């Protein structure tokens, strides 16, 4: 196929309400559990690719180590079709490596841009499967609103699809406690978590929670969505604390203070439930009508933390 002169794709980050936390196959990025996420309008990655002499990467105009993307591009070359070296120019509207899913939007945008550059006619599911090799969570960033990544049993069966729901006024209050690169990467965190004696039980519970989450979403029951998501997230982080091999936590003192405040907000009558990924930042699941009041309440108490409101976002797009 003939390549284009360049191609640009935009992918939005997603936040898992039912988590991906553990690999059944680290090479293929096959997960131990299926997961479900919400794509966010406010956070995204815009990636442009163009032919070059060697694979290279710029993020927000700064040169980066291209080893990881070079290895991923070689996978695409082997899996689909060979293509020339690429210069990757990426603009990230989300903190990198801080638990706000920057790798999800980054690898989704990169996969889509490379496919467009090469004129590959691939379905969203095919793109999702390919992006999984770069970042597991990237599987879900091709779809608007809610997506389910089925764990599958091999390379061909592990990809995400859109999960259709009724319109629901769901929102997240994002508590940006830190934008610093995390000390324990997601890949290493998962490896350690899988040494927890509680891991097998968490996998079983996660499967039940996914079924319950699907039911709650179909009924547009935001309160139940929040309850299930918070339980799933706390279970995930408990694995980190109980890992036999180098236990750890992504939480810091402010994370714990925000979690306490979420409980207080519930007691005050607000719809407020916490979810956290691989980082200290907390996302509060609430309704669109309550999001501003929660944001303002927290901003008065935590002057050094930035609070944003995130809403359901679109799937992959091209420029």
The level-1 CATH class of the largest domain: Alpha Beta
- For the record, the count of structural domains works out to 2
Tell me the span between the first and last alpha carbons.
Answer: 20 Å
Architecture of the largest domain, according to CATH? 2-Layer Sandwich
**General form:** globular
Helix content: 25-40%
Report the strand count. Answer: 14
**If you compute it from the alpha carbons, what radius of gyration comes out, rounded to the nearest whole angstrom?**
19 Å
Question: How would you characterize this protein structure?
Answer:
Helix 4 (186-193) packs across helix 6. It is globular, with a radius of gyration of 19 Å. It has two domains: 6-164, Ribosomal Protein S5, domain 2 (2-Layer Sandwich), CATH 3.30.230.10; 170-310, GHMP kinase, C-terminal domain (Alpha-Beta Plaits, 2-Layer Sandwich). With 319 residues, the protein is of the alpha+beta class. Strands 1, 4, 5, 6, 7, 8, 9 and 14 form an eight-stranded mixed beta sheet that branches. It starts with 5 loop residues before the first strand and ends with a strand. Helices cover 36% and strands 25% of the residues. Residues 173-303 form the Mvd1 C-terminal domain.
């Amino acid at each position: 196929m003939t390549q284009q002169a360049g191609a640009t794709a935009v992918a939005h980050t997603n936040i898992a309400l039912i988590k991906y936390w553990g690999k059944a196959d680290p090479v293929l990025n096959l997960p131990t559990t299926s997961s479900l996420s919400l794509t966010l309008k406010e956070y995204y990655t815009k990636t442009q690719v163009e032919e070059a002499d060697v694979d290279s990467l710029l993020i927000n105009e700064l040169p980066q180590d291209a080893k990881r993307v070079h290895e991923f591009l070689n996978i695409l070359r082997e899996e689909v079709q060979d293509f020339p070296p690429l210069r990757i120019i990426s603009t990230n509207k989300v903190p990198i490596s801080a638990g706000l899913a920057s790798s999800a939007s980054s690898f989704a945008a990169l996969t889509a841009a490379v496919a467009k550059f090469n004129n590959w006619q691939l379905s969203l599911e095919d793109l999702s499967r390919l992006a999984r090799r770069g970042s597991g969570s990237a599987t879900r960033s091709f779809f608007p609103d809610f997506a389910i990544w089925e764990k599958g049993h091999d390379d061909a069966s592990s990809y995400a699809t859109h999960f259709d729901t009724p319109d629901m006024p769901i929102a997240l209050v994002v508590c940006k406690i830190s934008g610093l690169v995390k000390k324990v990467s997601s890949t290493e965190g998962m490896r350690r978590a899988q040494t927890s004696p509680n891991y097998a039980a968490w996998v079983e519970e996660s499967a039940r929670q996914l079924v319950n989450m699907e039911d709650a979403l179909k009924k547009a029951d935001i309160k139940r969505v929040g309850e299930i998501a918070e339980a799933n997230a706390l279970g995930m982080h408990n694995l980190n604390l109980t890992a036999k091999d180098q236990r750890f936590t992504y939480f810091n003192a402010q994370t714990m203070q925000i979690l306490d405040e979420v409980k207080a907000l519930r007691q005050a009558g607000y719809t407020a439930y916490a979810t956290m990924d691989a980082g200290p930042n907390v996302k509060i699941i609430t309704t669109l009508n309550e999001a501003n009041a929660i944001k303002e309440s927290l901003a008065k108490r935590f002057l050094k933390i930035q609070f944003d409101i995130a809403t359901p976002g679109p799937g992959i797009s091209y420029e």
